[in-house]
Write a structure and sequence with these properties.
The protein has helices spanning about 5-20, 45, 65-80, 85-95, 170-180, 225-235, 280-290; strands at about 25-30, 35, 50-60, 60, 105-110, 125-135, 145, 190, 195-200, 205-210, 210-215, 240-245, 255-260, 265-270, 275. With about 300 residues, the protein is α+β, with helices and mostly antiparallel strands.
């Protein structure tokens, strides 16, 4: 083990000990200024007025950063938010002064900011919040889980809101509760029209009739960065993936299924409502697309 590896190993052990002992916690920055409180009139609290993206940061680098930034820019455009995203990197610079090895989870929140009572939009720029949760760095891998289909159905979104990861996640809160009642780490969600949409906090890919499919997300759902990355890598590898609506009547014919998000590239469902699924096609894809490596 060389000197650099020894230093990293010691830093890893120290960080893990601090996390376990509760001596290290979240850091919060608002427009690149570290703060400890949120204003009472912030519209994120009153109306869920904003958007967010959750990313993994490893050795000071935000993984899939360009996709996260692109999604935030699109969300800001859809929600009529004016935000200076340069505050993200300014916050990272400050965090690097605290951590020799900056590893963990980054939650980027864009809030419309303070405003008067009522729905009318304030005219000032939005606030850029950075929440950093230190974690020991670990390589991406896949996991195998038991899963199922939730009874609660997702509603249809205003067209302008489709794909946007807004701060209003009440559907996901209720869906997560139902999944936890079954002991499922992730579960398949359908909508009120009977179409498969995604997981509770993930997008999904399905093998059906020996063809990979991902739900089209025409009326609801979140356009996830890991989903976009996987689709791009599949195209580079010459692997086809159809984006289309998937009806509930097709679920019994699923051969394979996996869930993905920015913090976990592949949760493979080995069963769905006690129906056995083939995990090998997912494992083969994980290795072929090198999903253990994120840029």
């Amino acid at each position: 083990m060389n000197k650099k590896e020894k230093e990293f190993s010691l830093e890893f052990i120290k960080l893990k000990q601090k996390i376990v002992s509760g001596k290290i916690g979240m850091h919060c920055y608002k427009n690149a200024q570290e703060i400890k409180q949120i204003e009472l009139l912030d519209r994120a609290f009153h109306y869920g007025d904003g958007c967010f993206s959750t990313a993994r940061i490893r050795e000071g680098v935000i993984e899939l950063e360009s996709l996260h930034i692109a999604r935030l820019k699109l969300a800001c455009e859809r929600l009529l938010l004016s935000a200076d995203l340069a505050f993200i990197q300014r916050s990272i610079v400050q965090l690097k002064q605290t951590y020799a090895h900056l590893n963990g989870t980054l939650k980027i929140i864009i809030s419309r900011g303070e405003g008067q009572r009522g729905y009318s939009l304030p005219t000032h720029p939005a606030d850029v919040w950075i929440f950093f949760y230190p974690q020991a760095s670990e390589a991406f891998t896949y996991s195998e889980i038991d899963s199922g289909i939730l009874q609660h159905a997702m509603g249809l979104s205003m067209p302008q809101m489709v794909g946007v990861k807004s701060l209003n996640r009440l559907e996901q809160v209720l869906l997560k509760h139902e999944a936890e009642q079954h002991g499922w780490l992730e579960a398949l969600v359908t909508d009120v029209q009977g179409s498969v949409v995604e997981g509770v906090s993930s997008n999904c890919f399905i093998l059906l009739n020996d063809r990979w499919i991902s739900p089209e997300l025409r009326y609801n759902g979140v356009h996830g960065v890991m989903r976009a990355e996987i689709l791009a890598r599949m195209q580079q590898q010459g692997m086809s993936c159809e984006l289309r609506m998937i009806g509930m009547e097709e679920i019994p014919r699923f051969q394979s299924l996996f869930f993905c998000n920015a913090l976990s590239p592949m949760k493979i469902a080995k069963s769905l409502n006690h129906q056995h699924l083939d995990v090998q096609p997912c494992i083969d894809m994980f290795h072929r697309l090198q999903l253990n490596q994120m840029q």
